[in-house]
Amino acid sequence: MDLSKIKTLIDFVGQSNITELTVTEKETTVRIFRTRSPGEGVASSSPADAAVIEMPVVVSTATEPSAPDAASIPVHAPIFGVLHTAPAPGEAAFVKPGDTVEAGQTLFIIEAMKVFNPIGAPRAGRIVRIAAIDGGEVEAGDILAEIV
């Protein structure tokens, strides 16, 4: 992502009511957020009274391969919710990279509206990558893991 695009995004956040914006392009992710200053949102009588808006910019480059292994089968999240990689806090994860799994074996649990939904393996194989983070939110369609 070039600097002119990043500058445009910063200007957009500064002129809008949003407080956070995350944009990913290829292997670069830009996260722009601002904190509300005391009195922000109140009309000021002069430019000297205007609040300064702090807008840190975070730019990161992904270290993971850009394309999954052609032979791997992705395991997608079927619903939005909070991902759990273990049956209970403090217990061992259902699976880890390198584990061999059977079709239908529970790989994760997604908690949505206090309902715990088990996510099973779509086929037998070996876990080559776990892409999701325990306790993190996932969207429907997100890749959780890959099986070969």
Order of helices and strands: HEEEEEEEEEEE
Largest sheet: 4 strands, antiparallel
Cα-atom Rg, whole angstroms?
Answer: 21 Å
Mean pLDDT: 78
The CATH class designation of the largest domain is Mainly Beta
Descriptive account of the structure:
With 148 residues, this protein is mainly β. The protein folds into two domains: 3-61, no CATH class; 73-147, OB fold (Dihydrolipoamide Acetyltransferase, E2P) (Beta Barrel). The chain is 9% helix and 36% strand. The protein has a four-stranded antiparallel β-sheet with strand order 4-11-9-6, with no helix packed on it. Strands 8-7-5-10 form a four-stranded antiparallel β-sheet, with no helix packed on it. A hairpin with a 2-residue loop joins strand 1 and strand 2. Residues 42-54 and 61-69 have low confidence and may be disordered. Pathway: Lipid metabolism; fatty acid biosynthesis.
